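Lecture 7, part 2: worked example. A protein chain together with zinc ion.
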Amino acid sequence: MKAYVLKGIRNGIVKEIDKPIPAHDEVLIKVMAVGICGTDGHLYKGDYASPYPVIPGHEFSGIVEAVGADVKHFKSGQRVAADPNIYCENCDNCKQNRQNFCFDFKGLGGKVNGSFAEFMTIPERCVFDIGSLSFTSAAMAEPLSCVLHGQDNARPKFGERVLIFGAGPIGLMHLQLCRYNGALQITVVDINEKSLELANLFNADYVVKSDNMLAENLKKISPLGFNLIIDCTGVPSVIESTFSFIADEGRLLIFGVCPESSRISINPYEIHRRELKIIGSFALKKNFNIALDQLFTEKVKVEPLIGEKILLDDLPETLEQFCGGLKIMVYPNGFVD
Ligand SMILES: [Zn+2]
Ligand SMILES: [Zn+2]
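Predicted complex, written out as structure tokens:
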């Protein structure tokens, strides 16, 4: 089969490799659609430690090709997507329902081979039926699950003013869910005018270009600051700057993934005196089914978030030029809906 193999930092090729064989508890999936995540870009650039060679890709959907001997709930031909965070369910964290901190956590497309390939395997416990949902929409279930987890951690309350940095697919899903969760006013900041137009399409109350007027413009929108700030940029300097926009008792959700070795400086006195809260969010946790339901019922709309559509052979060049923006969707077995 064909796969995109990352052999080292900034060194990936599409090549023929052996088709994987599912272990007793695994499902072999023919990958139909797979989104490129910011994490894939970081992996490509070597921002995190990762064992090479590896096949990246973790936001996918496909068709069951074959199943291992002990697989009970799936059969070939079934349309599926999967939670790519492989947890063990046996360690002390998993037993306390904290699967995203599993001691044996294996992120698909990071520690183990992922979905930038024609076929891939994953344990049955991670797999979900997608019914008649399009493969493209189902490939958005993973990023949406992560956003849902972030919303659970920092849940906007009724009447709150929310400020979102970054109007890429993640920021725009947060925008939709903040509205759903009852935020009073949602402001979105980005450097890219096109992204801000999309934020308008999703009914942001205010969109603000990030330029040297930013602080002044945000002050006009919410003079007392914002109750919840969500960073979806993963840019340390942006995160550092957000403290001047948080209202007293406000919360900052660090959602975008910063480089592993990055540092910011904060004023602990300010955190104390203004009762600020800094909240993290890592991956997802047992909410993949909710994401699929939200996609199926179109409570969260993802179609406008999809940009370029490419084939596996286009991946080396696309990853070299990757710099965020709309979701790029890859179709390893040819274009489908
Ligand atoms: Zn992702
Ligand atoms: Zn575990």
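The first strand starts at residue 2 and ends at 8. The chain has two domains: 2-140+302-331, 147-280. Keep this in mind for problem set question 3.
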